[in-house]
């Protein structure tokens, strides 16, 4: 009996560590493939170079970094107010039957493959942007709109959970002092759930930064510094997604190096999410 | 209903019925609330005393299907608190509540007390500081927290947290303060501090307290109402209720034969 318990414990330990070790393997492999190129052309030239012409050996990814941040920023600008409003509404005003419908609709939203989002964006959003706002239509604006929808399930469900986890005594206490329902939500409930809400936003941000397929279809993929929300752009992920199929030699390594930068950004965001969600409320 | 209080009335309950959907929880209850006195509601669990208390600041409005009938008149302006035409927010601005378990917000001590003032639109820093200090002094908490007023309220002990909740309610100068078993989650030392505080506070505010602790009612209150099955069985001066109850059921309850 003793032996059996120990045996099971060790097996589970092994399984747990093997899944974590996959993360280490991925990191090791990407860094191994990508870092030599970064050293070869210099971190500064790689990060801040504005020309990406693999056939001539120029590998500057600044336009992609800027593209990624623009698209993500745009998605958050729309996604945060929408998602937070939706979470608050679900928590505080929705009758149970409507909540069931809304929650399952949000589940469906999370389950739609990204290529379908891309397809819909291409057919519906891109022409709209082109006809009413000008530019090629394949643009940061279209990409941000689609991404803001794609990150909604993350923001809504995690924010709603953290609002729901608050003790009911907060609400009763605030109302008993003469606060309106909205004052209670805005001055007590939302600040009290702040850590969860911030975590939801950062996880949504990670999802937006990482999205590839839909962005390849919608952004236009131009390798140049975007100067407005109506310009085409390329992100770090789409750069890898588009070119990996045919890249060789330094070009291939440069794509891995792009992955290194993406990896570091995502790691940083996750760490930030952990720190912020643990921070004391005040 | 004997013994109309000799002091002026702050509120008067007239033929109040209350329903949780179809279930009637209060049955034709009447009660005078004397100004700047302490009125205690006692009775066995489930007798409706907390339900009764929550009518005074319309806390039942949070859930659909709850229904009031009758009147609770608030003096001097004779406002019927439970009239559907009266905004519950306005009622809660005038009648505040302290709950069974201390429920400070996850904010600093200062922000907890300032909350009610901020809700009322007060943003001037010096005025907020002044009123927060005054409320904390009224709640006999100032000396203990003045050096950590910007610390998180959760760092206080249970009894301090409850006095913080009292300060929070006092900061906005309510006309009536409702206490719903305010010491049931506290140890004896913290309890006696809260009781002392409640007796102090009646100089400034009218108090209604629900308690399952009969000694507490006997110690702190001026008037006592004994409730049973949603009705008020006996109401009188506290010493009268505890020494010469006029109804047999009251006597059986206070001597511990049921409840």
The assembly state of the depicted protein chains is: heterodimer
Please list the strands of the largest sheet of chain A in the order they lie side by side. Answer: 1-2
Q: What percentage of the residues of chain A does DSSP assign to strands (E)?
A: under 5%
What's the rounded overall pLDDT mean of chain A?
Answer: 91
The pair of chains with the biggest contact is: A-B, 20 and 28 residues
Sheet with the most strands: spatial strand order of chain B: 6-7-8-3-9-10
Describe the fold and architecture.
The complex is a heterodimer of chains A (282) and B (259). Chain A has 282 residues and is an all-alpha fold. Helices cover 78% and strands 1% of the residues of chain A. Chain A has one domain: MetI-like (MetI-like fold, Orthogonal Bundle). A two-stranded antiparallel sheet of chain A has the order 1-2. The longest helix of chain A has 40 residues. Chain A is globular and about 70 Å long. The model of chain A has no long low-confidence stretch (mean pLDDT 91). Chain B has 259 residues and is an alpha/beta fold. Chain B has a domain of 175 residues: P-loop containing nucleotide triphosphate hydrolases (Rossmann fold, 3-Layer(aba) Sandwich). In chain B, the strands form two sheets. In chain B, strands 6-7-8-3-9-10 form a six-stranded mixed sheet, sandwiched between helices. In chain B, strands 2-1-4-5 form a four-stranded antiparallel sheet, covered by helices on one side. The chains are: A mainly alpha (282), B alpha/beta (259). Chains A and B meet through helix 7 and helix 8 of A and helix 2, helix 3 and helix 6 of B.
Quick overview of this protein structure:
By secondary structure, chain A is mostly helical.
